Give the backbone structure.
Amino acid sequence: MDTITRLAALIAECMKSRWPEAEGLPSAEELRGLLAVPPDPALGDYAFPCFRLAKSLRMAPPKIAEELCAAWTQESTASVRPVNGYMNFFLNRANFAAETMAALLAAGDRYGASDLGAGKTICLDYSSINIAKRFHIGHLSTTMIGHSLKRIYDFLGYTTVGINHLGDWGTQFGKMICAYKKWGSREDVEARGIDAMTELYVRFHKEAEENPALEDEGRAWFKKIEDGDPEAMEIFTWFKDVTLRDAAKVYDTLGVTFDSYAGESFYIDKMEPVIQELRDKGLLVQSQGAWVVDLEEDHMPPCLIIKSDGATIYATRDLAAAIYRQNTYHFDKCLYVVAYQQDLHFRQIFRVLEKMGYPWAKDCVHVAFGMISFEGEALSTRKGNVVHLEDLLDQAVVKAREIIEEKSPNLENKDEVARQVGIGAVVYTDLSANRIKDIDFRWDRALNFDGESGPYVQYTHARCCSVLRKAGSLADVTPDWSALTDDEAQALLRLLSRFPEVIREAAEKYEPSMITRAVTDIAQAFNKYYYEHRILDGEPAGAAARVALTDAARSVIRTGLYLIGIEAPERM
Ligand code: ARG
């Protein structure tokens, strides 16, 4: 139990013993939310505003604070003082240090892990790239938020299913095959991959402007894919392989994995039963030749299911996919990590599922995120300024290599560290703000070793490791936790003690950035501690306590970085 939760429970107890008859008093849980950190540390470590009790007790807050303080018996946890209607707490620093360190030592590298999610399954739909299109920097967020959430849920004991819902269905693939047959070559596509495919697609559109008959040919090729024509299928499958081969390079670099690549084409034969079900349930209505589910009473445009030409669409496949996932994985939650532009799409899908009578529709969540721009410029495919993720990552590694060369010319495995730091800088930036916020990626910020950045946190981790390497035999000395009662140690301990809670909150809010924030705060607190105190000096029991604190900081930073998909080098 972390300190705040403990204090809240103790206040609840104190309140009950002082006013056993009173009604409408806040629960321990509510008290927990009311506890605040005073702006001036001289006022205490925590403060409880007694205003919330005034009505139930029919008493003025300052009086309540006084009576509560008088009734307080938990001096070993904290001493208290009433100030202007607040009950102020001064933690017993030595006890707090001893308890927090005991919890950290007992859990080791699993500190913050739990079995909260035992027996529960979470499906995560992330990255979900489109075939024959290149990964651009805009794909970074879905990939990394999804990957991070998967690690977070795994750490909390959930069973997770990572799904790359490939965009591998649509008339554009007929056009691409048509273009390939006319102007393409196997060697070229093999050698240049997605670039070659993109050129074919662009050329198709250019030529089709002059020669509209091409469109019919493209449609005919798509029909062949639909009918399973061997030649069409062979080319289509091969396009897919080439795309995934390229993507695999990026996934490898980022350390991202999936449990399933069931994309849109996987659901082709699973849509008919869904359409039938919609029809049976009286949900399908005809509108201008198309079949839709009316959502007027939900103040949404109708959800298109079958176009007037008989073709199904993205939404139809998403309905089939959701039902398939529930039937296959029996998920407790199905998360869709997709840009917020698709907000309406998901609201429609979830509402249709609800109308179909699926109670689990409420367990489907669109985990939306904002846009990413690059050095102040929006990324738009139409304007052509697309920053390819692969190039960005390569550049990050090169730049990190230069900085490392300058800062640590004697480092042994510079290439490996440059890779970890360069990638870490990019991923950290992506996961540094609330996911719904737009992000502007800037090199100077991402690679600033002294600012709030991936390299800064990684560097702090390496610094901890370096201290520990020098600690030698101190590891065997029994620590005296009362050496950790100074302001800096306490600030660090407080952050460390809150970490398990941060992980749970990040999971609850689908917000990896909360972990990014926490590791950054911990890194800053550690550095402050490091500058103010001589960790290895003085008598051994005190030094052993400081070493243990350093090791705890190291471990928690490492775990935090892991949870947001960043590696933690031991030397930098
Ligand atoms: N491939 C889609 C796109 O890039 C994202 C798919 C998201 N997942 C889903 N089940 N719709 O726009």
Remarks:
- The chain is about 55% helix and 10% strand.
- Residues 125, 128, 130, 165, 167, 318, 321, 336, 338 surround arginine (CB under 6 Å).
- The longest helix spans residues 230-254.
